[in-house]
Write a structure and sequence with these properties.
Strand order of the largest sheet of chain A: 1-8
Order of helices and strands of chain B: HEEEEEEEEEEEEEEEEEEEEEEEEEEEEE
Number of strands of chain A: 8
Structural class of chain B: mainly beta
Radius of gyration of chain A: 22 Å
Organism (chain B): Apteryx mantelli
Strand content of chain A: 5-15%
Number of helices of chain B: 1
Protein name (chain A): Protein OSCP1
InterPro entries (chain B): WD40/YVTN_repeat-like_dom_sf (IPR015943), WD40_repeat_dom_sf (IPR036322), WD40_rpt (IPR001680), WDR54_beta_prop (IPR049546), WDR55/POC1 (IPR050505)
Keywords (chain B): Repeat, WD repeat
Structural class of chain A: mainly alpha
Distance between the termini of chain A: 32 Å
Order of helices and strands of chain A: HHHHEHHHHEHEEEEEHHEHHH
Oligomer: heterodimer
Helix content of chain A: 40-55%
Protein name (chain B): WD repeat-containing protein 54 isoform X2
Radius of gyration of chain B: 18 Å
Number of helices of chain A: 14
Largest sheet of chain B: 5 strands, antiparallel
Shape of chain A: globular
Largest interface: A-B, 60 and 68 residues
Shape of chain B: globular
């Protein structure tokens, strides 16, 4: 499958994460200066030059579990902390949102417009910090350079690769349920009306030609679909009207965002299979994580800034309850790997993890998902 | 146009459950009919697993990303061919024994470009053709039995990744060839198969990916990313019909050779049935719409007729863990 999918996956999921964190920071009434610091720290870390270079290298997509570890690091790049239950919920919301956006893109190239929508919003979050703005623009240019000249067929391969990544995820998200874009069984609503993509004609016309190429017959057929001509095409430049709404911030009004964990039993069954089958990509995943996390420069917070805990739920009790009742099949346990025999690899990871060791405010307990080395030792 | 005359309704039958859901890949449904045993087998691809189902079917599992699974029916044997990023595998039709494995040359490709095999068809009762992401088409010579399968030729006409390959399903007129190959750019090539394959025509792209192609009585039926179905004369490459069929990317086409019915499935959730015919006086190729089904909230990725008359068909879609079946009433 496409080896150019990771940057799009990472940036869009990152964008959704920032939308959600921004909304929760406001909902939890975190003081403006602290909230801005958190957003700036995370965005600075995300768009770090070394990290972006690693990201844009042609490579396969890794599992949801492996990627989750990177977002875990990212979310803790500042003075904010999240419990495992909140981190799980955050990741659920991020992935379901991007899955929805990819699925509903009218044409494959629109995945790039969705990415630009996320980046436009990120630039708005940091509009008061010109140095970080520069980093984001650099990434924008890198995106245009990498994807600007790909054909529709190549974009469709990227989209297919993304859809395989999101396959079998049917977590119900209350904002989607309320707006009727998701059914109660967790599947997204695919409208059979609306504008056709640019370059596609409204279905209905049949034209027949003779061997000279002259049109000799014309007929029409009707279906239940109700399509209209498309609007203008969105801009693929550094600045411009993207036209497409997918990828813009749907949380811009403060309202509690819930996710429901219950999926259909079928999706749970297939998820369970994924968790228990031996993962042949495990070693490559470890290498990927080491390289990617190695590129993340996590700043140590200044002495005067005190940390705080963000809750993705409305109360602490709800968060605890969610942690206890999360179905086993939906848990993002870190990849089950065979302990690598290379001592060099272990040392390198220890060094990287050591560099990433942030402040003392960090809770004493280490979530299984965060301590890769401990996991390896535990096997 | 009086649609009522030609629309003989199809009724939904019992679905077939799958052990894993179907992936969003082109032509992601293959049907093998065993008329003497009154059985049909269906296969779809889920990322790392192949679903193969029938009354007693079971799933197979593989460790690398699969792109396509298709049965190739030759006079003496039926092989199940699987394509992936690592290579091409051929199995006896029930998936029990692997008879051939062809690894893809990953090292020769620059890392940014995807490497995979896609597009499978049996030609002239002796060959199996498989397409590659490089645009090459490998032609395998298949003996009546055993594992002595060899690469007899490599066809080098396409410059973009192959999307689909189809062999003539009916009786071609002279000069029409018996094989058509399609690629990501929308270019189509018609060939005459044999000890040495000959390129007959190269139908240029018009700016849209051709994801699925069929060949019947010298007519090429091609499905495109802009939702259009186009019919070409294989012998001359001339465009004979253009249908604004779907509102989104077409993922699958199938043709029932005994009646000329054409089935199309796309991301817009619709499956359409068309009827191809030749006007005996004018020699013009005609196509009319017969029937449509909307598979609610589903992006269709596989659609096949279950019998050569087209009295029944099967459909699957992205994230669906079942195959929907419809039969004519």
């Amino acid at each position: 499958m496409s080896a150019r999918t990771l940057p799009l996956l990472f940036l869009n999921l990152g964008g959704e994460m920032l939308y959600i964190l921004d909304q929760r920071l406001r909902a939890q009434s975190i003081p403006g200066e602290k909230a801005r610091k958190v957003m700036n720290d995370i965005i600075t870390t995300m768009f770090n030059k070394k990290f972006m270079e690693e990201l844009f290298k042609p490579q396969e997509l890794y599992s949801k579990k492996a990627l989750r570890t990177v977002y875990d690091r990212l979310a803790h790049a500042s003075i904010m902390r999240l419990n495992q239950a909140s981190m799980d919920k955050l990741y659920d919301l991020m992935t379901m949102a991007f899955k929805y956006q990819v699925l509903l893109c009218p044409q494959p190239k629109d995945v790039l417009l969705v990415t630009f929508n996320h980046l436009d919003a990120i630039k708005d979050f940091i509009r008061d910090a010109p140095s970080i703005l520069n980093q984001v623009d650099e990434t924008f240019r890198l995106l245009i350079e990498t994807y600007g000249s790909l054909s529709a067929g190549e974009f469709q391969l990227i989209r297919q690769t993304l859809l395989i990544f999101f396959q079998d995820m049917h977590i119900r998200v209350s904002i989607f349920l309320k707006e009727k874009v998701q059914n109660s069984n967790g599947r997204f609503v695919l409208p059979i009306s609306g504008p056709v993509p640019c370059g596609t004609e409204i279905p209905g016309l049949i034209r027949m030609f003779n061997h000279n190429g002259d049109e000799v017959k014309r007929t029409e057929f009707t279906t239940d679909g109700n399509y209209v001509i498309p609007q203008r095409e969105g801009s693929f430049d550094l600045y411009g009207d993207r036209v497409l709404k997918l990828g813009t911030n749907m949380y811009s009004v403060t309202r509690p965002v819930e996710t429901h964990m219950a999926g259909s039993s079928k999706s749970l069954a297939s998820r369970a299979k994924e968790n228990t089958a031996p993962n042949p990509l495990a070693k490559e995943e470890m290498n990927f994580l080491a390289r990617l996390i190695g590129g993340l420069e996590i700043k140590k917070p200044g002495g005067s800034e005190t940390g705080f805990r963000l809750n993705l739920f409305t109360t602490d009790e709800e968060e605890e309850h969610a942690a206890l009742t999360r179905p086993e099949e939906l848990s993002y346990k870190v990849i089950n790997i065979e302990a690598t025999q290379e001592p060099g690899r272990q040392e390198e990871l220890a060094r990287i993890l050591g560099e990433l060791d942030v402040a003392e405010q960090r809770p004493a307990r280490t979530a299984k998902g965060e301590d890769l080395l401990a996991l390896m030792d535990g096997l | 146009m009086a649609a009522a005359d030609t629309d003989r309704m199809y009724r939904k039958e019992k679905s077939i459950p799958l052990k894993s859901s179907s992936s969003a890949l082109y032509n992601n449904l293959s049907v093998l009919r065993l008329p003497d045993k009154q059985l049909a087998y269906f296969t779809t691809v889920h990322s790392t697993a192949v679903n193969m189902v029938s009354a007693s079917g079971d799933g197979l599992s593989f460790s690398h990303r699969l792109l396509q699974a298709a049965w190739c029916v030759l006079p003496s044997r039926v092989l199940l061919v699987l394509t992936s990023q690592k290579g091409i595998q051929m199995y006896e039709s029930d998936g029990s024994v692997m008879v051939y494995w062809h690894a893809l040359d990953v090292m020769e490709r620059p890392p940014a470009q995807a490497v995979f095999a896609r597009g499978i068809a049996a030609a002239s009762g002796r060959f199996i053709c498989v397409g590659m992401s490089s645009g090459l088409v490998l032609v395998f010579d298949i003996p009546p039995k055993g594992t002595n399968i060899t690469v007899s030729e490599v066809l080098e006409e396409h410059r973009d990744a192959i999307t689909d390959i189809a062999a003539e399903l009916g009786r071609p007129p002279d000069g029409a060839g018996d094989l058509v190959t399609a690629d990501d750019s929308g270019t189509l090539c018609t060939w005459s198969s044999g000890e040495e394959f000959t390129l007959l025509h190269k139908i240029p792209a018009f700016g849209c990916t051709c994801s699925s192609v069929k060949l019947w009585n010298g007519i090429v039926a091609a499905g495109y990313g802009n939702g259009q179905i186009r019919l070409y004369e294989a012998a001359t490459g001339v465009l004979r019909a253009e249908v604004n069929a779907h509102a989104r990317w077409i993922y699958a086409l199938d043709l029932a050779p005994l009646t000329g019915k054409l089935l199309s499935g796309a991301e817009d959730s619709f499956v359409h049935i068309w009827k191809l015919s030749k006007n005996l006086d004018t020699e013009d190729i005609e196509i009319e719409h017969c029937h449509s089904e909307c598979v609610t909230d589903t992006q269709i990725c596989g659609a096949r007729f279950c019998d050569p008359e087209g009295n029944s068909f099967a459909v699957t879609g992205y994230d669906l863990s079942e195959i929907f079946r419809y039969s004519q009433v």
